[in-house]
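Fold this complex.
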Amino acid sequence: MPDLIVENIEKQLGTAQVLCGVSFELQQGEVLALLGASGSGKTTLLRSVAGLERPDKGKIEIRGKVVFDAATGFEIPAEQRGLGLVFQSYAIWPHRSVFENVAYGLRLRHVADAEIRQRVGDVLARLGLGHLADRYAHQLSGGQQQRVALARAIVYNPPVLLLDEPLSNLDAKLREDARAWVRELIKQIGNSALYVTHDQTEALAIADRVLLLDRGQIQQDGTPQEIYGRPTSQFAAEFMGSNNRFDGKIAEISANRARLENHGWSLWGKLRGDKEPGAPGTGLIRVERVRLADGGGENHLKMQLKSALYLGERWEYVLQLGELRLRVWGEEGRAPGECWVAIPQEEFWIF
Amino acid sequence: MSRTLRSFAVIGVALVVFGPLGLIIYQSFLSEAFFSPTASLSLGAYRYVLTDSGFHSAFGTSLLVSLGMTLISVPLGSLLAFLLVRTDLPGKKFLEPWLLVPIFLSPVVLAFGYVVAVGPVGFFSLWTKALIGRVPWNLYSLYGMILIAGLTHVPHSFLYVSSALRTLDPSVEEAARVAGAGPWRIAATVSLPLVLPSILFSAALIFLLGFELFGLPLVLGDPAGLLVLTTYLYKLTNLLGVPSYHLMAVVALSIVALTFPLVYAQRRMLRTAGRFAVIGGKGQAFRPLPLGALRWPAVAIVLLWLVVTVLLPLIGVALRSVVSQWGEGIKLFDVLTLDHFRELKGYPNLVRGIVNTLLIGSIGGALSVVFYAIIGLAAHRWQSRWVSFLDYLVMLPRALPGLIVGLAFLWVFLFFKPIAPLRTTLFSLWIAYTVVWLAYGLRLISAALLQVKPELEEAARVTGAGQGTVYRDVTLPLIRFGLIGSWLLVFMMFVREYSTGVYLLGPGTEVIGSLIVSLWGTGALDLISALSVIEIALVGLILFIALRLGVRLDA
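Structure:
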């Protein structure tokens, strides 16, 4: 039985339709990332699961128990859903110590004092906060506050852990470390987790499965490898990674391949979606998949190298052919001039 | 829990607001006082009042005073706000709390202070006469009244304009400076135009307060035969020998008919004001505009206003309380005495008045804050049409001057027999005070509640706390300092309150403010001055505590 079933959730805020029928399931022990730009509805979806927003339509089940059903008007309030939620702003109660922040959920559940001390102590120790139990929020660094928020949300073993951009208030270096240990922690305690983020690297790194949301709809649901490596829509392809984009016309289709062409170039790639020859098409390829080549060949283009930018760990070349501009990564500096570019067919998607 | 709280708030507020108001409206359509057995439905009271030439001239005077004081206090208040918030005015940290002091002083005490300081035989008048041979001003005139009303209401416009200026992005001024504008030009062409909505809002507020003035015109206008609407109402009390409640109800309603649209207009203005200002980074440090050579004239303006508005009347009251008599040819040091304070003990009603003032301020103030907090919490994050109903409800009392609320509650206690015994207890006064200060108190509470970020409450909800538990464990603990601050401010307002208690004054319900009003009719200047000093000392003490605790006065 899945830990969480979300069925066909719709939600309107003011005049904007924020969620247009979203459905998904969260399996036991799975970490699911809700990935999307701001305004995609991901936070509204999370808050609907938490019970902080009331959807207009749909049904939500937690461990087989219905907690919301618009059809019957049934709704279990947030406080009775037993979930754990980590807020973007952490929302550490400033008038309670770290210990009391974490212990609050257990106190509400009438756990005996001795057990509270032991369980809170365990969680704090596990998160490396043992020595900070008596501190208050204003005496903690951002990273420490973030861990307190996490401790507070997991201490009473919620069936599902909800995380709303939990790392976005950390600075870049801390964030990279946090990705690793947050995933380790969730896996260790074996919880299933719903993780909202707008940062694709974070979603890919932390999640077992990613839901890509756009304007209130799920664009793609898959493993991180599928989302990045086999996008099913142009939106999904363009949303992830850095891309080179080719606008042109579909000249020819053979099996699942197509030839895209425009002034001065013609390339074969994998056809995604239904297209007829003669229709306008868009070709996309990840920047890291394009290489400079030594000479001509199948799917090679002869282009002008306009400039080479030094980015530290690599060089970026800007190439031009008529209206087509490409970015290509390489290892060494190059002088402007003519050069060949290889566009691997397998990695070139045509939508 | 939250359901009970919310129904209690809506029903409670509706009762205390509509009850008295409804009774006034009912009374206005009767031919006599409502308790008279021969009272019948009639429009006679309207006919009498609306054709009375005294009413017409009172209406005209009220209008003139309101307009005049608005024209004085809004420009001056805006200028002071600019100087104190945006410039490097010397000593502004010290000056700022003093700017708000007139708000916490009872107008009747201030007016009395002006009488004994600069009235025809006031201390400063006689000293000036000794110097130059004549008194070059006349306090008892329309202009005197307008000037003093204007000066004492400067803090109201200062309050709104300064808080708007504080949120203004300093870079818009810096841009003007870089372009070559001096401080006065920046104020006139950049800063003040950008906070125009707040300036207009404060103008509407002061215009409204003009119609509610009671203490100043009673003390300053009466000797010159000048009546405004409130003093006209007060004079009606004993006009016909029998209580002319029906006439009073019509006058009260005519005042409300003027103030209610103003309150409504203000509310509309407040809604649009938010769209105007250029909000800068949160509390970012910025360099105040250097005034240069203009700093000393600027300080002089602020100090002059402080001296005339605060120091002059306070010195007057203080001096008058320690002299046995005063008049032409008397030397100050010959007549110094503390007898007036000792005399107070001989009047049990005055002693009760002092004790009652303390009780209503401390315990009454605390109970009112509890009441306001219940309403505030009920409306807090409540998404329902009832919230806007509640909003309109609490707005209504702002259109009701204390004098009228006091009168209405007197009638409520006379009308509803079961609660009649409460009329002679402090409860009657407390409930009237609570209604008069309802909007003010709620503003304090909601300012405190605004500080609580929604996630803090949501975190508790998700953790498993019901709405009531969230209030108890998160919301209330987080606003407790705000509640203490609100209590101190309400304490001061209740101590300085005078007009609300005028009609409720009786054995058991004496308070300093209404005693001063009634003593003024008897000319007992010695007792008034002693009572005034005690009231000022009380307010000063609480003000001092509040400032030490860091309570923001500009709520």
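Confidence is low (pLDDT under 50) at residues 277-284 of chain B.
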